[in-house]
Amino acid sequence: MIYFDNSATTCPSKGCIDAVTGELLLFANPSSVHTAGWEARKRLEANRAVIAKTLSASADQLIFTASATEADNMALIGAANAKKRRGKTVIITDSEHPAVSQSALKLESDGFKVVRIPTKGGALDLSAIESVCSSGDVILSSLMHVNNETGAVYDVKAANTLIKRLCPEALCHCDCVQSYLKYPVSLQGLCADMISISAHKVCGPKGIAALVLKKGVRILPIIHGGGQESTLRSGTENSPGIAGFAAAATEGFENMEKNKAIVLNLKAIIEDSFKENKLISFNRPPVQSPWIISMQVKGFKSEVLLRMLSDKGIFVSAGSACSSKNKKSPILKAFGLSDAEADCTVRISFSHTNTADECREFTRKLNEIIK
Ligand code: PLP
Asked: Which atom of ligand 1 has the smallest separation from the CA of 72?
């Protein structure tokens, strides 16, 4: 099998699996008031500190959630409701993951005004942000760092700096699911108040993610109960997931530069091998994550090509896994592709565990299909 769908999810590392297994066996509830519970709490807090360090944050700034979808929901709905007396306008991009775009729809139905900033060609339209902010009514923004379908890296820091200058009351959220442990990610570095990350995109387990909160920022919980996670996210903590997340985060953080060099080479192998091929073209934003290739294969509907590659043991995706049931990708349309171009676009997404041989095998098999 050649697995090139790492933006959808990654293979958990050995360190992650060991950490999850160890914690599953210890199993006590970290909120229990007995020695086993206190020990579980100690381990959980140590793991929280480990993950926080990879974000240049302190442990108390990390709120664990069950997914980045939940973290995004919490950031948008929790922050908008906390700020609703100050204004009604929320800014997102027109290329957000459904975790953000659907939360924004919910806010619209609750009476907020949502403005979607164009990302045509793969760049944030800063002048559109400036004109929205001139109203002074913006209370919240949610601008993703790296796009999960095109790999576009948006200049979120410039956008957030602009928003903060024109609307100092606004809270800035950033979905860093596709940039965490690939680029340096921190609240300070992105001029953000909230950041979402997800463990299963970085060789950690599924079912664990986090919202990072700037100190002093107040949002409202969207899940109510026993008051865990500083009352912001009730529910017994997923201690095994958190242990696996911490192990994966440590490995990813220590090897960030090395991993980047690996995937840059993989990307170059595939792009170079199709340089002269008239049937293949690449969707290239001005700055693109080396972990993602977005390519058009003319004459082949992506669903059909996906199946043909899958039959040959190669797994890629059309758009994102989360939106692949939808007919057309709104993200590729927002990028500026025609329906026909979007229909023949496939996404290859790497992990540092992929190899040059896998890339050569992929190009050979794709050439067999399209020849
Ligand atoms: N945001 C982005 C940019 C994503 O790519 C994804 C998953 O693909 C998510 C959010 C949702 O993450 P999770 O699977 O942890 O809910």
From this structure: 10
Indicate the burial class of 53 (C-beta count within 10 angstroms; 0-12, 13-18, 19 or more).
middle
Q: Check if 172 is active-site.
A: no
Question: Which tens digit of pLDDT belongs to each residue from 181-232?
Answer: 999 999 999 999 999 999 999 999 999 999 999 999 999 999 999 999 999 9
pTM of the model: 0.97
Annotated active-site residue in 172, 174, 176, 322: 322
340 lines ligand 1 (CB under 6 A): no
Mind listing the pLDDT tens digit for each residue in 6-64? 999 999 999 999 999 999 999 999 999 999 999 999 999 999 999 999 999 999 999 99
Give the position, in ligand 1's atom list, of the atom nearest the Cα of 147.
Answer: 3
- CA distances, 246 to each of 45, 212, 234 (Å): 11, 15, 21
Predicted confidence (pLDDT) per residue in 251-282, tens digit: 999 999 999 999 999 999 999 999 999 999 99
Query: Is the CB of 322 inside a 6 Å radius of any atom of ligand 1?
Result: yes
Burial of 106 (0-12, 13-18, 19+ CB in 10 A): middle
Task: Read off the amino acid at residue 43.
Answer: R
